[in-house]
Specification:
Oligomer: heterodimer
Radius of gyration of chain A: 13 Å
Largest interface: A-B, 25 and 24 residues
Strand content of chain B: over 45%
Structural class of chain A: mainly beta
Radius of gyration of chain B: 13 Å
Shape of chain A: globular
Distance between the termini of chain B: 40 Å
Number of strands of chain B: 11
Strand content of chain A: over 45%
Order of helices and strands of chain A: EEEEEEEEE
Helix content of chain B: under 10%
């Protein structure tokens, strides 16, 4: 069960926007809208920031947005802030009742 | 407030067994599918196993199929993961998580525990 592909790193200056891609296959991202994104700060548990491709849980900043096209999902962080510096992971449902995470992206605020 | 608390981690030898627990509070536990996710030191997240709200359906990653067993006790609000025949590759923090919506498969994980560490070494 190979992982979804994410860039290892992404960076931007405060107030800039960055996007993180998450590439899968027609058996996961391409087939289902069950794509979610998680933020993880060092030493802490992951936190849900996007579900169902583009929905935001209550309390999550509107600076986070999600989208999908074909086999690739994307997370965009607008108005980058220092507290956004963290690791980000995508997760997708996959055929045969499996789930798969992305490889993870380390976001650095310059 | 929904809370999840893992326990049962520790140090064990290759080939050994261990049972992890995840105590849930603040929710009608049987209504929600649950999941185990692990993270090896310095590595990314890996889905390990999932279970339906009733416990009647279980799912496993290829890497643990046949060695790990997921189960739940809805009367006690507790999720379990039995680790058998472990190897060094199973060394990780193990997190339990709750599905977003009731009475459905996991579509996203909206509540996570703090994790419990499992280390496999001779």
């Amino acid at each position: 069960q190979s992982a979804l592909t994410q860039p290892a790193s992404a960076s931007g200056f405060p107030e800039q926007s960055i996007s993180i891609s998450c590439t899968g296959t027609s058996s996961d991202i391409g087939a289902y809208n069950y794509v979610s994104w998680y933020q993880q700060h060092p030493g802490t548990a992951p936190k849900l920031i996007i579900y169902d491709v583009f929905s935001r849980p209550s309390g999550v900043s509107s600076r986070f947005s999600g989208s999908k096209s074909g086999n690739t999902a994307s997370l965009t962080i607008s108005g980058l802030q220092t507290e956004d510096e963290a690791d980000y992971y995508c997760l997708s449902f996959r055929t045969n009742n499996a789930y798969v995470f992305g490889t993870g992206t380390k976001v650095t605020v310059l | 407030e929904v809370q999840l608390l893992e326990s049962g981690g520790g140090l064990l030898q290759p080939g050994g067994s261990l049972r992890l627990s995840c105590a849930a509070s603040g929710l009608t536990f049987s209504n929600y599918a649950m999941i185990w996710v692990r993270q090896a030191p310095g590595k990314g997240l890996e889905w390990v196993s999932g279970i339906s709200g009733s416990g009647g359906s279980t799912y496993y990653a290829d890497s643990v199929q046949g060695r790990f067993i997921i189960s739940r006790d809805n009367s006690k609000g507790t999720l379990f993961l039995r680790l058998n025949n472990v190897s060094a590759e199973d060394t990780a923090i193990y997190y339990c998580g709750k599905g977003c919506r009731p009475n459905r498969n996991i579509d996203a994980v909206d509540v996570w525990g703090r994790g419990t560490m499992v280390a496999v070494s001779s």
